[in-house]
Amino acid sequence: MTTILTIAELYPDFEHHLIQACNFSTSSSTLTQSMQYSLQAGGKRIRPLLALTTCQELGCNVEKAYPIALALECIHTYSLIHDDLPCMDDDDLRRGKPSNHIIYGQAHATLSGDALNTLAFDILSDPNTNLDSNTCLQVIAEIAKAAGYKGMVGGQALDLENENKSVSLSTLESIHRHKTGKLIEASVVSGALVATTNANTISTLRTFGQAIGLAFQIADDILDVTQNSQTLGKNAGSDLRKNKSTYPSLLGMKEAQKLLLTTHKKAIDALDRLGLPFTNLRNIADYIVARTS
Amino acid sequence: MTTILTIAELYPDFEHHLIQACNFSTSSSTLTQSMQYSLQAGGKRIRPLLALTTCQELGCNVEKAYPIALALECIHTYSLIHDDLPCMDDDDLRRGKPSNHIIYGQAHATLSGDALNTLAFDILSDPNTNLDSNTCLQVIAEIAKAAGYKGMVGGQALDLENENKSVSLSTLESIHRHKTGKLIEASVVSGALVATTNANTISTLRTFGQAIGLAFQIADDILDVTQNSQTLGKNAGSDLRKNKSTYPSLLGMKEAQKLLLTTHKKAIDALDRLGLPFTNLRNIADYIVARTS
Known about the structure:
2 copies of one chain form a homodimer.
Chain A: H1 7-21, H2 29-39, H3 46-57, H4 66-83, E1 93-94, E2 97-98, H5 100-124, H6 133-147, H7 152-161, H8 169-195, H9 199-226, H10 229-232, H11 238-241, H12 247-251, H13 253-274, H14 279-290
Antiparallel strand pairs in A: 1-2
């Protein structure tokens, strides 16, 4: 068993790997800067941390999961850049800084998002990943499905189409399971794929990932109402302004908070079934419920 | 040796495979329609045909290259959708039809481009591709590099930054080698990777791909001046309107046509060095020079 690093130790390690990975140049210096600006803007790094710690808490050297962690952050970052565009959610503040298109313009924001999307697969297919080819392909398949029309992009489209509409709870859950949930689920599963081939372990961790993915979004909806923009690092109250249905708007704040706790319990129950400590994964699940930004 | 299908036979076969591949649904019906609209809008299908015929002309069953052909067309199509956006080249006509954002709006055009980009890697990592894992990974690496900041997206960024500027011939070549050339080169090389591990064959076919990639763009610049919008299926004269440097504007029409022929010869010379007939590849190279749209 290798030493298990805490989340507090993994975070700066990931930032260090990210800075190294950002040490590239492109034929366009504006494109390079635009990509680096958003990658290095900070953030919770939930997806990479999930992949890294799932890998190590299953007994595998955490270094093996770094390409996956980087790829996940590339995809998450590209989705934020494109979501913030005026034609999409039109947000000018992200991670406490001006959105990418505010600094680099819409054309370069579109292109840097495109480049980061592709960069994820460039990183995962690099012959130096130290992962065997079968595992690499499984991870690519997992992440591509979670990020594309079957997952994140499908969810964002559904979200846009339901602005200014009153949606059912099941539609709201479908939006969030796709838009946010699938990539969080894939983060846990791809970290697991590096460490094990045990189908039961992978499927139980998938259940964990699905639950924390949903919990993350319920918490997001609650924070949008209860916190201010400075604490969030993005514009607060934006769901209300865009007339979007949310868990608090559909269920009321009290029931939304109750659902958050039930969903958190589902996640913890899944971990309990596997009989390993999973200290970090439990901490991340707790953080998702307790976070203020 | 399997039977070599002609380009005229491969084209409808590819369209058939593409229609089958388009038989998907997403959580958003608008997103699905938007993706299918652009994939099925016709087009020359140069990239898929290059991959398919390179594979078969090296003696391998063409069926093996279909996932690659589909992935290449997904990436090419996403790049057209995003390039046509108002914040980029702002073109309202593509493949003889209204551009994607004219029909589906900018938000869905952005998302369907994103989804097609990711779909390429979903297709390539599918366990049913019938390719061994190592080859799959090599192809993913080849295509990701060619499509991302090291290739197509980098070239598009450089192109945008040089609008309304007088550029040198070497900058123009760099723009085109990245923006159009790299993915055409990757189409040939990935078709070859399926069929052979011979490094000399792959590298010589890379030279062929680079030459026809450049020839394709020189021809494009010439056609933008000499043809009308109806023949081209996109707005003619757009380089001039956007004040973009082109081969005819930098060299004059006569020298541009001469460079087109020299570049075509480089491509044919590469094929000659390999001692195989490559009838289809020669036909595609000839078509690139002689095409009117």
